[in-house]
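Researcher: Please predict.
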Amino acid sequence: METRVRRKPCIYFCRIMAVEHYENFPVASVLLPQHLREPVAAIYGFARSADDFADEGELSPQQRRALLAGYMAELDAIEGGEPTRHPVFLRLRPVIAGHELPLQLFRDLLDAFTQDIGKDRYRDFAELMDYCRRSADPVGRLLLHLFGHASAENLSRSDAVCSALQLINHWQDVGIDAAKGTNGRIYLPQDEMARFGVSDDDIRRRAASADFRQLLRFQVERARSLMLSGAPLGWYLPGRMGLEIRAIVAGGLRILDKIEAIDFDVFTRRPVLRPLDWTLIMWRSLVRPLDAKP
């Protein structure tokens, strides 16, 4: 079965509960502690449905924004102590209350989904990372709150892992994204494209030129560095939670290896995780690096 990193909502940790939609890390389905499965499923239901509002079906931009605004209103109702009406929030509300989850993290996700409706270019890496901060990082933070390990250091490392996974998906799917919509969706920072001599037309023509390969090499190296900066989180968290993080990190790094193995020509072959990759991923998840702290 082909394994893909899905772009939004970048709820990489939530794939543990919904392999039918997110196949990238199915190993995690057996790693989540039993008592957290329903809370995680509730968060997943929120993020999955909001993502669909933004990016699935034949809805108009106005209809998509209206649906996401309805979700934002439900969050406002929770904050104001008003009744909840939507089924997604009837399930999510007790999880938010019981675990004291920050509502702003849910709002950040909705803000990122709304941005996706109309934005298809990113001026520079800082702008792209701001998108990752809202579209990828919140779920990692939410799960750390669920796990009871939301220290400042853990949150920072979680952000690095989640943002790196988001970037990896972007670089894995450069060609697929460029074919979406009227103008295509290009996540490669525009200023860095110009620096490497790569144009929007080059991307839309799926031209894996030497300049494009150098550009993508640069992006891959930066994503790997970001991922490795957050990787110690998997060794700091206890038990199955730590193993879950380590499997996710190893899976993301494996995709980067595969992008390099095809000489950065993601237009011709989309790098995906195959069954044999899981042996390597699990080995890397179980064997502590020499430089990993206890």
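Model: The domain at 13-32+120-286 is CATH 1.10.600.10 (Farnesyl Diphosphate Synthase).
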